[in-house]
Amino acid sequence: MMDTGLPLLGGLLLLVAGGELLVRGAVQAAERIGISPLVIGLTLVGFGTSMPELVTSVQAGLNGSPGIAYGNVVGSNIANILLIAGVSALICPILVARSALRRDAAVMLAVAVGFALLAWTVPLGRIGGAVLVALLIGYIGFVIRQERAAADGGALHDKSVALAGADPGLAPPHAARRLAMPLLIALVGLVLVVAGGSFLVSGAVALARGFGVSETVIGLTIVAVGTSMPELVTSVIAALKRQGDVAFGNIVGSNIYNILGIGGATALIAPSHVPSEIVAFDAPVMVGVSLLLVLFAATGLRIGRREGAVLLAGYIAYLWALWP
């Protein structure tokens, strides 16, 4: 147990620490060379906080463990909605901006449905991965144009605001005096993330074999929750600060990044079939809870404590159904 637990725990710690350093260094470097805070928030911060999921899924795919790779993507989205949104709503009711519901939540639901259908019909090869990544790039470009015109926020923007709330050092403007130090910080963070992903994948595979549990179950639960720690921390801090709207945007933006960015990059780099158990059960669950979140948000433009309790109870029920 110790032999499998240490790589798993060490990998998670390296992923969290490396992800924070990577985002910090990249943001400071981008500010130093004059990139706008809006673009930084929607791209570098968004991708940076999703880097643990990205590295873990890609490494698992390259190691021939698609259950961990795609279980991480689908499991993270389920955990974001049921666990993270549930806990956040229990702390403070989540307020939902009408624009975020119309645009971002609708996109989150659409990409969840699209991923489930794609995984059900064809192997996720490089063409499918390229389509997912292209959709993410197009969506980010659309959001940047819209937010520059209206300055009305949005899920991807809220994702970066949530991180800045958890780590004030990332709140723009925070220009570094020199470019070398931010780049060095980002490089160290990247090395830690890659090492952490490697330890996490090897530890997860060993844990699955030791307990006689499928790699897919480990990917959907332990790996998914572990790599979602940045989203959990930032959403809870936003809720404690009574910034429920930011918590909602952080969760929705993370789910969009997970499917289009991480699922797409994994299919591009390590194409494979999505495991049949994910296609048959977990992907439909992801679609169902995404729809449930949208329905909760649409009723009064808030997710109250009662809805939060329902979401959290749903996650407990999901774990109970998943584990043998």
From TrEMBL:
Keywords: Membrane, Transmembrane, Transmembrane helix. The keyword Membrane applies. Residues 8-144, 183-322 form the Sodium/calcium exchanger membrane region domain. One of its GO terms (molecular function) is calcium, potassium:sodium antiporter activity. Signal peptide: none annotated. It holds the Pfam family Na_Ca_ex. It is found in: Membrane. GO terms for cellular component: plasma membrane. Coiled coil: none annotated. It is a multi-pass membrane protein. The chain crosses the membrane at residues 78-97, 104-121, 127-144, 183-205, 217-240, 252-272, 278-301, 308-323. The keyword Cell membrane does not apply. GO terms for biological process: intracellular calcium ion homeostasis. InterPro entries: K/Na/Ca-exchanger, NaCa_Exmemb, NCX_ion-bd_dom_sf. This is Sodium:calcium antiporter. It comes from Pararhodobacter marinus.
